Amino acid sequence: MRVSINISSETKALINEIKKKEFAGKRITNGYIINMVMDNISIEKLEKKLFEIKEKNNYQSVKYSLTQQAIQKINKLNTMMSASKDMIINFGLHLYKEELKKRETHKVFKRRYELIMNNSTIKIINSNGEINDLLNYLPGIYSVWISAKGKEKEILYVGKSKIINSRSTKHLSSLLDNPGYFGLTDDDLKNDNLALGVKIEHLINLNKVETFQELEDNLNKEERKHINKLKPHTQKNMNMKNEDEKREVVKKVIDNLIT
Fold first, then answer.
1. Do residues 144 and 208 lie in contact, with contact meaning Cβ atoms separated by under 8 Å?
2. 161: which strand partners?
3. Whole-angstrom Cα distance, residue 101 to residue 83?
4. What's the pTM value of the predicted model, to 2 decimals?
5. pLDDT 10s digits, 115-166
6. Are 183 and 234 spatial neighbours (Cβ–Cβ below 8 Å)?
7. pLDDT per residue as tens digits for the range 224-253
8. How many CB atoms lie within 10 A of CB 87?
9. Which among 134, 143, 185 has a CA at the least distance from the CA of 168?
10. DSSP letter string over the chain?
């Protein structure tokens, strides 16, 4: 059905950007892009985020061939939210761009997973001349532990990351500035009887994950599962304990480790 919509220059630019990314070199109409976006972005997502986009100026009335479903969704939001049709389409395009980015990121992660899980992968040597464990560059669950010579490792923290090495390295380096995050003090950091480290607890099998959202859902599920299982000293359920609670429990842990 051909319908006239007052459309802004920014919305037109977004349509053309998505057209180039998804259909480079193909003859695709702007109406096709609007239909595709309205089919893929739920009305709940549009409704929830609609007010984050400001109204645009310099409208131009343009006729598009839209499906009945797309027209109904636009008209419903137009009535419910008192939002212009341009604003609705504009935000749908923004959301669709986010989905495209996640899709590309998922492809990159999956390719990396397949390369690293291949036993004949090239060896990457770090500045100390040691072979890097490439598993650290995959998404999964990790723990931060503290120990002393001859003692068991005590789990301080459990977290999730799409790239384990990136997140865990940030945690360990931030200890120098804020040891209290893990219930530690400067004196603990100066104690050469103690050792602090990171362990991979679980890797997400990307061969069984079809979308970026599934990856995020799996990470959230496994993080909760491993926190409940490992009972890290600085966390209570899915939340960090307060500063006093963390220090109290970690001090007891350290006292037990060095005595």
1. no
2. 140
3. 26
4. 0.78
5. 999 877 788 898 889 898 999 999 999 999 999 999 999 999 999 999 999 9
6. yes
7. 999 999 999 999 988 999 999 999 999 999
8. 22
9. 143
10. -EEEEEE-HHHHHHHHHHHHHHHTTS---HHHHHHHHHHHS-HHHHHHHGGGSPPP-S-EEEEEE--HHHHHHHHHHHHHH---HHHHHHHHHHHHHHHHHHHHHHHHHHHHHHHHTSTTPPP-B-TTSPBP-GGGGS-EEEEEEEEETTS--EEEEEEEESSHHHHHHHHHHHTTT-GGGGT--HHHHT-TTEEEEEEEEEE--GGG--SHHHHHHHHHHHHHHHHHHH--TTEETTEEPPHHHHHHHHHHHHHHHH-
Q: Tokens for 19? A: 């057209």
Q: The tokens of 155 are what?
A: 């789990």
Query: Which residue bears the tokens 């645009």?
Result: 56
Structure-token pair, residue 259: 């005595």
